[in-house]
Each structure stands twice: as C-alpha cells, then as structure tokens.
Amino acid sequence: MAGRIPENLLEDILGRVDIVEIISSYIPLKKAGANFKANCPFHHEKTASFMVSPDRQIYHCFGCGESGNAFKFLMRHERMEFPEAVESLAKKCGVILPQEDRPEAAQAASLNNQLYKINELAVSFYETNLYGAGGKTALHYLAGRGINPETIKNFRLGLASPAWDGLINFLRSKNASLAHMEQAGLILPKKSGGYYDRFRERVIFPIADMRGRFIGFGARVMDNSLPKYINSPETPVYTKGRNLFGFNLSKDFIRDADCAVIVEGQLDFMIPFQEGLKNIVASQGTALTQDQIKLLKRYTRNIVMIYDGDTAGETATLRSLDMLIEEGLNVKVVPLPAGTDPDALVRKAGVATLKEKVENAESFFDYKLKVLRGRHQMKDPHGKAKIASEMLATINKFEDAILRGEYTRKLSDQMQIPEQDIAEELHKLKPAVSQEAKQPAPQAAKPAPINPAEKLLIKFMLEERDLVEKIMQQLSPSDFADARTVKIVEVMRRLTLEGKSISPSVLMNYFSEEDATALVCETMFMPELSEEGREKAVHDCIARIKVQRLRSRREHLHIQIKSAQSLGDETKLNSLIQEFHNLIKKGD
Ligand SMILES: [Zn+2]
Question: Separation of 29 CA from ligand 1 center, angstroms?
C-alpha cells in the first residue's frame, strides 16, 4: 500500500495530523471515554458504532468493520486514491513529498490537475458568456425550462457562443496548452490543421465529480436541431458511468434520507433538486453501472428508480433492477407515463406529486411483472413461461433464501402457476449463479473466527513494543493459525527488528489486506488490562497458541498416517509414527 512514497514520510505525516480533527470535519464526533464515537459514515445505522481513537490515531466501525488510519479515512470517505490521500494530508501538515520518487504517479496527478484547472477555466468562460451580451436567448431558454436564476448560478450553467475559437482564445490567454485543451475534450483538431471549439451555440451543463471538481460537460441546443446533446468525450478525468451527476450536491441528503432517487438526465436531476427533492442523482446514461452502484451503496441501501416513460427507460430500469438486487440493495420503481420524465412531471404537476410517487413507489416485483405482462401474452403458454422465467431470473439474484422463497410464492400466486413448477424452474437457474458469483461473497463477508489468544497477543504487542521480541522468542509467526494474524505478526516482527515504529496507524500502511487492517483496529478497541493482568494473559495466550499449534500438527499427522496405512507404505508409516511420538513427548 505504501507504494513509492517513503515509509518514513508516511509516518511523519501520520504523526503530525490528528485523525479526530480530520474525521470531525466530515462527521460530528462525540466523546466516549478515551475515544470518540459517531454514527458510521460508511453504513447506515441508528446507534453509533463508529469509534475513533485519538491515542492510536485509528478508526473502527463495529457495525460494518470499516477501519483504518487517516489516509484510509480519506480514501474511503472522499474516494481518494492512496497517493492523493497522502498528498492531501501532507499539504495539511506541511510535509513536502519528493516528486521524483514516483514520477508516473506524479505525472498522472499533475496532468489530472491541469485538466481540472482547464475545465474550471472553461466553466467560468461559459458562465461569463451566459450573463454577457449574447446570453439573452440562452437565459430565456433556461427560464423556459423551469430553471431558476439561483439554480443556474449553483450549477454554474453557461453558454458556448457560435464562434469557432471563443474558448480556444480564452484558454490561450490563460496560458493553457492546446494539448491539454484537447485532452480535456474541449477542442477538436481541424483537417486543415489547427483546432476548433467542440461546443458551440449550446447551453452548457458542467459535470462535477463527487468532490465538486469539474470533469466534463453536457451541451444542449436551444432549439430542436440535432443532435440535441453533445457531451464531453472520455478523458483522463472523465469516464462515463464512473460518476453520478449531482452527487456532490446530494450525497449528504441521500445519507440523511437513507434513500437515493435515481433519474436519467441532468434536467431530471436539476428541476426536482431545485424544487426540494434533494436525495436524488442522475445516472447520465441508460442503465446504471457497477461503479455507480458501488458509489451509492456507501450512502444508502434504498433505491428508487425513476427513468423515462419510454421503452429505453423501461429496459434500462429492468437491467438496473437486477444489478441493484445483486448488490444487496432494496429497489423500488416509479413508473412514468409514456413520453414523461421527472423534469416534465415536476414542471407540470409540482414536486409534491413526484415526492408522492417516490413515497408510493412500486416494488421491483410488481413493476417487472407489469412490464412483462405488457410485453408477452399471459394467455399464451409460451408467453406465460417467458414471463415466469424472466421474473425468476431477477428473484434468483437475491442472496437471501427467505426472500427468494417469498417472491417465488408470490409469483406462483399471481401467475397461477403451481409453486412446485416454479421451484423446479428456479432450481434450474440456481447452480449457474451460486457457483460463479455467490460462493465467494459469503466467504469474504464472514471469515473464520480468529483464536482470541492470537488477537490478544497482537493487541499486547502493539501496546508494548518490548513484548514483540519476548513473544517472538517463544512463538514464530507461522505458529499463528490465521492468515491475517500471521501477516500482522510478520510485519510487526520485521519492523521491530529494523527499529521502526509499529504504532497501529503506521503498521497498517504495510497491509494491502483490508481484513488485517480491520483486525489491528478491532484489537485496539478491546478493553485494556492492568499490568499484572496483562503479564498473566501474555503467558496464557502463548500457552494456548502452542497447544493449538500442537493439536493441529497432531491432527495433520494423524491424517497422513491413515493415508500411509491405507496405501501400505511401510517406510513412510514408520517415520510418521516416529514423528507423532516426538510430538507427543514435546507437547506433554
Ligand atoms: Zn460502519
């Protein structure tokens, strides 16, 4: 995880910043004994199980297991990459990072920064145009679309003039290079040489990322000419399907409401948002992507989809439903009449109507069944089979067997198909899914429990550096039974030998494994023991780990002996039995 940034610098930064100060700039922290606690920003909860330790400079959530140091918090909460998080904290505490140590990362970061800067300049250029002499028609157009002046300012809407080189000339005057303008997707090369502005004579809708940096643009004509929309191409800072339009403005509302309303277009976002439906985002494309769902999942598990009332909207909704269910989200749908979208609905019927529709959104089940009934004939046996199998494909996405059972019964009921037949069809679907996607998931979610003695020893070693050497004289890392504890102990031993810090917040810079980090944090929030209590506990833990180790070796040998017996391999059998006796002698 440390990458090319020197470890001592990471340590230096962690030593200078205060995790309590950093986290409390995002969420309110309450004092709880020696620690601070809060409602976890990474999962939805009603009682606080998110702990921050000022002594250890770490955080840990006992609800969802999310944990780490100050870097990790920024990576998770602000979705920064590791180098970005390091850079941000380095800046905060005045540590200077050597650029030459990571030329590629630095180059990429500096290119991205250039593009953000150019986009920001372009936003201000288009914005100035809108309020300038040529902006009357555009302002009139925007007002006609129901966008009020305040929203125009908030979203920094703008205008691209008819000129072919308006933006180029402006950016040049700000010393931007043509290469960067092209990489930002703002200009295009002419066949005859030179460049021209990509967006002309259009209203400009800047697209911001989650942190409010401008990454791209949507540009719409003000009449009925085609194409209606032109968007930025993919650039180093803008990948379609990676971000959600408006999320930078609505994410806190989504977290508070514990529900996200998902719409398709920018105006479908802007108008309801302006009118007071704030927990909303736009996917800016047809179907949702995996990246977008992962982004949303950090804020809520409840989704209401409102896509356009046309076939494309319907198909995109159906596809998104399956993906959302697969990610374990609860999803409902607001169907709109053909030819309507959320923007038009709010302007026609008011935001209260849309809110009411969100309140009464249909279950995925009712929605999908209705759509399928419109597409296939229930009376025709083949049509009926088609409907049932498509419904089952979605029901099958539920991880929870009880939910699958409930929906199967519901399907049997509503379609008047015997439950047995439905169960048989579902059974046919089952293996494909459970083998590929589902099996690794529960494993990842529920790792085997760790011997408490191993956890405690790690805690003691982290608290008292001298113990590392003492304990390592009696145990080797491989005596630990769990892959996570082995990893932690190995790193601790190495750092101690090298005379380096093993404070928990520093230690976790050496793990790329999430669960090793979580384990370190968890042990740090375990109750403290008195001096004597600890001494005895260390002794007991070592003894218990040794016993455990002997037992598992004995069991292993036992299996080998049995297999040698059944193979009739006398030589091997004798040597194994000898080994077994030695082991028993040692153990007792
Ligand atoms: Zn949590």
Answer: 14
